[in-house]
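Page 37, top half.
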Amino acid sequence: MTALTMRNHRGEEISVPEFSATEAKNSFGKVLDTAISQGMAAITKRDRPTAVVLSLDAYQALVDAQSRPLDSLSHEFDALLLRMQAPRARDAMMDAFDASPDELGQAALLAAHKP
């Protein structure tokens, strides 16, 4: 049997309580109580983990962890877009579009050599 492990909120690796599918079917209340008290419980079939029952707190932690990076990227994008729409940035972009290939090459060399 493959024992499932997870890291708790303190970063410690702990084993996940396991129930056979038959135990889960016959004693779902016990599985539910275990998930609520310990965060999750695994359900096995033929001694292999096949499903996990999560407490609402564990589920919410997963959802929150997943949405945080997206929220962070959204804020970064909004800030970048705001900077790009400023008059100075707009003028610089127009200058770049109007520049000749030689002027763009010189600007790239200057930018590459800036500390």
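Page 37, bottom half:
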Amino acid sequence: MRMCRTAALTLSAVAVSAAAACAPKTNNGAPTTSPSASSTAAPSTTSTGAQFDIGNTINYVSTGTTTTLDCGDGKSLNVGGFNNTLTVKGTCGTVSIGGGDNKVTVDKIDRHLNVVGSHNTISYKDGDPKVENLGSGNTVNKGG
């Protein structure tokens, strides 16, 4: 029984820590509160995205962020979320984009580019991936 209680307390502490780490921060490090629906505050430009690696795959989920990711030499990348502007350095084996209104620029894609969301703009500078555009209103460009 004592081991179960300790495990439950540990999991609770991890969940609270993770939630606090994902909350937007002010300059003094305290979490900020979300503005009310009637607020006219400008959208946040701070990164509130979550990135986690599983094996050789980078998983990135966010809304309204601008950031740079790095595939290194052959990692795969999964992106979910909306209104993100992502610059991806290095060579990605496979890139999968879900969500909508994302702008993703990748240095190089080797094998596959899968797009299942809507109104995403994906550009890759190098590589010859098999492109599967299963969403709607997406734009895929090689170059630039």
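Margin note: Strands lie at 50-54, 57-63, 66-73, 76-82, 85-97, 103-115, 121-126, 130-133, 139-142.
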